[in-house]
């Protein structure tokens, strides 16, 4: 057996649980969405009505992209899945590669592997091979699900391939960045900033109908037009860029020193500050990159949506079908628009808390936790410091994103009347976001090896939150999403009982995490 095959086997054995969670969760969500859309829009008349609603004005294109061939079942599925696809597929590529490259190098395990016959470039190449295989499996299963839902095979295959190409580009980008930065958190930071920039470019390009869409990997997936003109040649763009980025990563990995990075940054201070010598200060330093990356995404999305507020309100005037397609019914259209946008921002904040608590697992598996606990620092104090830092990052993301949304919407509509309501609606989602944090912490404390289930739960909650009401899923399924119990502010009254229940559940899950972590083995 060649050393390359051995390295691929090592990556698979160490990452298979996380890979399987990603693939199963994404395929189940995507195929379930396709089946629900096919059941709901089961006649040409219903499909035509939907298409007329979502194409009246270009504001919706900023969220879901411009779908060619939307007057078809496949086009409706592509539009309904637009935001989730542009968010979850890049995360698939980033997550699969980041954990198998820079994180392994940080932990010191990679140096041990390279002590044998494994060449320096082979771990990075193996990580890309395994990630590409997982992406390919996801695409094939999704295409099969679309065909079973009644979508023509050619369009289903092209759409699935376009989404796979999107994940492949970000996998290559993550591998490339892993050669430039010293820590895995830096890989996530720059990859998330790249994703936010790609989303903004695609959104601006689609709303202005300019060439900017072609500068974004999200735009390349869109321009394949699987249910329109079917530009198969557009698949070459993500393929070439992904291969180029991956190839550059492999080339750099073969030539740099193990444990080093091409961009080390400026030398830090000779001594840590008084705050950094404390558990809370050190925790803030660890979680700062993740908070920065997710904050960048939330701010860009909030700014884009707020700037388009008046345009979207004009499109909804006299077009109830458009409002209904966005989940805006009754009341003031601006309130409904803000409520929908805040739900998107709540999903961004939820992704941050899952990743931030996942960092605790990385601290444990990479051997940095045991030395910290070997002295006078107790487990409870260490965990409490990190939880406070994560909560502070969460509040920062929610408050700043809501502030940007309020300011940009006020500029767009020419009124600051709704400023306070926008800020309050963002804060109302904090208990729901803390439930996700509690679930992640409970898994970290009770079953750390299964932490990937926290990401699966996050993906499921995201699918249900966005698509559950519109697809008229059973109420018990909709209720599984924590955001369903907030009350849809400011379009609807804040559900005080729901927020209280969410708060109690969040506290209970956090306590479970604390108690379990205090009594289990480290590393576990």
Spell out the helices and strands N to C. Answer: HHHHHHHHHHHHHHHHHHHHHHH
The helical percent reads over 70%
If you compute it from the alpha carbons, what radius of gyration comes out, rounded to the nearest whole angstrom?
23 Å
**Separate helix tally:** 23
Identify low-pLDDT runs: none
Instruction: Please report which band the strand proportion falls in: under 5%, 5-15%, 15-25%, 25-35%, 35-45% or over 45%.
Output: under 5%
List the quaternary state of the chains. Answer: single chain
Largest sheet entry: none
**Overall pLDDT score:** 87
Termini Cα gap: 32 Å
CA-based shape: globular
The beta-strand count equals: 0
Structural class: mainly alpha
